[in-house]
Design a protein that fits this description.
Elements (H helix, E strand, L loop, with lengths): L1 H15 L5 H18 L27 H8 L1
Helix pairs in contact: 1-2
């Protein structure tokens, strides 16, 4: 997960500098989701480290910019 997050940090920097545009960011997001799909079955949770509670997370209806939300959801 750390490597995927670091990669998206680089993508964000490139986007901020005008080196990447929306199509490149979306392509990188697709790669991120593919990586998360591979990692998800291998993530084990230690019951002692789990915090019980509820979190509400979402995006504005119709907003396609849900990459950050999905990253937080995976944590």
């Amino acid at each position: 997960m750390d490597g995927l997050a670091a990669g998206m940090d680089v993508v964000g920097t490139y986007f901020a500098n005008g080196e990447y545009f929306v199509p490149e960011v979306l392509m990188c997001a697709d790669a991120l989701y593919a990586g998360l799909d591979i990692l998800r079955p291998h993530i084990t949770l230690d019951p002692e480290q789990m915090v019980k509670g509820s979190v509400v997370i979402g995006t504005v209806e119709g907003d396609v910019h849900d990459i950050g939300k999905n990253l937080v959801k995976m944590m």
